[in-house]
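Suppose a colleague, Dr. K., hands you the sequence of a protein chain of 308 amino acids and asks what its three-dimensional shape might be. Before reaching for any lab equipment, you can write down a predicted structure in token form. Begin with the sequence itself:
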Amino acid sequence: MNLSDLNELLSIRDWVRWGASRFGEAGLFFGHGTDNAFDESLALVLHALHLDHSLPRDFLDTRLTRQEKERVLDYLQRRMEEHVPAAYITHEAHFAGLSFYVNENVLVPRSPIAELIESGFEPWLQADADLQVLDLCTGSGCIAIACAHYLPHAMVDASDISPSALEVARVNVERHQLQDQVNLYRSDLFEELPEQQYDLIVSNPPYVSMEEMQALPDEFQHEPALGLEAGEDGMDIVARILCEGLRYLKPGGIMIVEVGDSMGHLMARYPQVPFLWLDFERGGHGVFLLTAEQLQQYEEFFLEECES
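The predicted structure, expressed as tokens, is then:
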């Protein structure tokens, strides 16, 4: 495929339509920022042209130079042929209304927890309070940084076991100028964290089972397995968070953790525990909330699971 075969594609609109058609033909998976072929093609074409979505609609009919066509074609071909998530091509992702640098050392931000952050975690927390927040398995730092943005008086600690992921998170902390509000730690969950307690522990940890990992679309194979897979039923990391979390949570504090489609596995492990499953207006599921008091009440079950 080369430009001489595509001489009839003149405008931005032409290229977006062509890309969407080819994406559908290639059977791509969408879910790393967009949920359909048209939006994915639009995002890639605009980024290749150094434009954003605020572009007036009339500009979609403007024509591309040959050099611009080459860049657009490169973006679209990579998405089609390699099944690379668009965010890894543009090195940009959006989360909670904020822009983040990403590469293949971190998951593409997409958690429904963004909706909770934008609302300041009401009614459980007060957005104007002096809060202590901990983000476990921070990856790109998107949850930690968004928490700092929407909770302006909060101090946020963020940990990850991956040095390469923390390099990406550091780029994003500096991009948003939050060095005085967000602290990054290389830590296997709680192991290397300071001895303190938090009003909120939030996490989007690995939670994909070994069997489910093999069945994921090709796009997920470009993401770090360390951020996805977590044992036979996907609950190994979540079990450790539940087992160790009480020690780091203030009385009256809350824990919010995403487990996605593995919520059934979690409830099977802990049938006694009344997880509060949160609802989202913009879609998403598999995010639970537990209070410090609930963690204490069911601590024996969490400890028993960790020791087994």
